[in-house]
Amino acid sequence: MRVALVTGAAGGIGSATVRRLVEQGYAVVGVDLEEAPETDTVAHVVGDVRDRTVLKGAVDFALARWGRLDVAVAAAAVIRGGQPLWETPESELDELWDVDVRGVWNTAAVAVPAMLAGPEPRGCRFVAVASAAATYGLFHLAGYNAAKHAVVGLVKGLAADLVATGVTAVAVSPGSTNTAMLDATADLYGIADPVAFADNQLLRRVLDPDEVAATIAFCCSVDGAALNGGVVHADGGFRP
Ligand SMILES: NC(=O)c1ccc[n+]([C@@H]2O[C@H](COP(=O)([O-])OP(=O)(O)OC[C@H]3O[C@@H](n4cnc5c(N)ncnc54)[C@H](O)[C@@H]3O)[C@@H](O)[C@H]2O)c1
């Protein structure tokens, strides 16, 4: 049985990812600030990805209960914004950096050693959830754009550090997806209905979290090795 760590596991994309992975036979330990349901094959840790000891505890739990760690999905994040960069308080950049970047860094820092020490490093996958904001400069989201571009840089450097180990690293960049974060983004822009974000995608609809989770789950698979060091765009054809 493959075993995964998923951060942001109580959120829209994170919880859909947990469901997908379980359907594919994984055992999963989730981490989130919020509670999430547990089953025989899903454990959940309430904690903050800014705290590396929380993530180390989740990895140690997976190793103690299921004996291995094959996959880590770093999906926990916040969105902040609503003003141009020069009017944005520095505290907002600090929070985005700490949660959206350091949280991914912390997840990799605790998960990768367990993967390298495990029985099958060649099947191990680190997947970070970035964003269309990691490719484009979306207006009034200066700190979020910077943080998500940093996530892609982190993944590329991690893949280079993992050279020839068999463990791979990839970023998945969703477009507008129907979750609490999209509602929050609409609020930042003063948009009444997040469905309006459909105009930015060639699909002309927002994505369902399960569609993004399907892409993430492929990236987690043994067959996902060829994606190493890259960015997978799960954005329905995003055009800002
Ligand atoms: N929804 C979208 O349109 C969209 C688009 C592009 C990228 N993304 C990315 O997808 C990922 C998942 O977002 P989502 O849309 O499911 O949002 P969401 O708000 O539904 O889920 C995010 C989860 O992260 C958790 N979280 C936040 N801060 C945390 C912390 N410090 N420690 C632990 N958990 C924390 C939240 O409690 C929440 O459950 C994020 O990385 C987000 O940036 C989302």
Automatic annotation (TrEMBL):
InterPro entries: NAD(P)-bd_dom_sf (IPR036291), Sc_DH/Rdtase_CS (IPR020904), SDR_fam (IPR002347), SDR_subfam_2 (IPR030981). PROSITE patterns: ADH_SHORT. Keywords: Oxidoreductase. It comes from the Bacteria. Belongs to the short-chain dehydrogenases/reductases (SDR) family. This is Mycofactocin-coupled SDR family oxidoreductase. It comes from Nocardioides hankookensis.
